[in-house]
Design a protein that fits this description.
295 residues; two-stranded antiparallel sheet; 40% helix; elongated; single chain; 12% strand; alpha/beta
């Protein structure tokens, strides 16, 4: 039995009287699970949670190509949350909780996570229980957990499914999600902010408000301005590293560096140095040209 049929049978087997939720991000994996769920004939509601920091045009792409998806807008934008709470991090994922995960509380949600994406996801079960108390027994239903990236692109090509332009040149992104996600590698965060500098500007403004409203907080006490704080965030540097930079022989001007390397470059023209086809079924990042080496 091929993977497609296995995934379809899996969704049918786990169906209950209560319809599934289906988490749709506009990325390649969510495009596939939506099509699989429709082919399986199971009852579900597909939802896109507007995080307000997905690549520009994501909502238009969904409306034009997947009108069956319900678009939900947050009470507060990502940047409003940052101005109140500071930077998100791997350990402080308030953005995920407030902007995405709350729609799955107590529900059984079909999601496009795959085992090969990380060592943590490699340990997931196809029906994964959420152990966090505030999720109230939610379950993650993962029909393409065993699929590879090649499998995903092969399915998209075979079925002729519309997919986001950001996977193709000149962008060549390997993931479609929140720009500058702190769960992504540092080089990827930097490249995404160079690609979409407007989000970097908003992040700097928001963290500036946070520092102004909380002058006794660690950020306000340790950084001269929001540019320094953003530089620190963008490089995952220690405070010791920052202090060493500021005491260096030639000085340190974070604003000057960020203005030059993010806001004064036409990144879209060269952000992807090389893209290569994955066996003819899609594009994968070859290498990034980041210009300035932040660290």
């Amino acid at each position: 039995m091929n993977k497609e049929q296995q995934s379809i049978d899996f969704l049918r087997k786990l169906e209950t009287d209560e319809p599934y939720c289906l988490s749709f991000s506009g990325g390649k994996d969510s495009v596939v699970i939506l099509d699989l769920a429709e082919r399986a004939g199971v009852r579900f509601t597909a939802t896109y949670a507007n995080t307000t920091v997905d690549p520009p045009g994501t909502i238009s792409f969904i409306k034009n190509n997947y009108p069956q998806v319900v678009i939900r807008h947050p009470e507060k934008s990502f940047f409003q949350l940052v101005s109140e709470k500071g930077f998100p991090s791997r350990m402080r994922r308030f953005c995920c909780e407030k902007l995405k995960e709350r729609y799955g509380i107590g529900k059984r949600t079909i999601e496009g996570m795959r085992a090969e994406e990380s060592s943590k996801r490699a340990l997931y079960e196809p029906e994964q229980c959420d152990s966090r108390k505030w999720m109230k027994g939610a379950k993650h239903i993962l029909p393409i957990l065993s699929w590879t990236e090649n499998d995903v692109w092969r399915y998209i090509r075979k079925r002729g499914l519309p997919y986001s332009k950001y996977y193709d040149p000149p962008y060549c992104l390997t993931r479609h999600g929140c720009v500058g996600c702190p769960l992504a590698p540092v080089h990827q965060m930097q490249a995404e902010y160079k690609l979409i500098p407007g989000y970097a500007r908003q992040m700097i403004r928001s963290i500036g408000k946070y520092m102004e409203n909380k002058p006794n907080n660690a950020l306000a006490r340790n950084f001269s301005d929001p540019y320094e704080a953003f530089y620190f965030y963008l490089n995952e540097m220690s405070m010791q590293d920052i202090r060493r930079l500021k005491k260096g022989l030639f000085g340190f001007n974070a604003k000057q560096i960020i203005e030059k390397e993010i806001f004064q470059t036409k990144t879209v023209l060269y952000v992807a140095v090389s893209c290569r086809r994955i066996r003819g079924y899609g594009y994968k990042l070859g290498s990034w040209l980041t210009g300035y080496v932040f660290q």
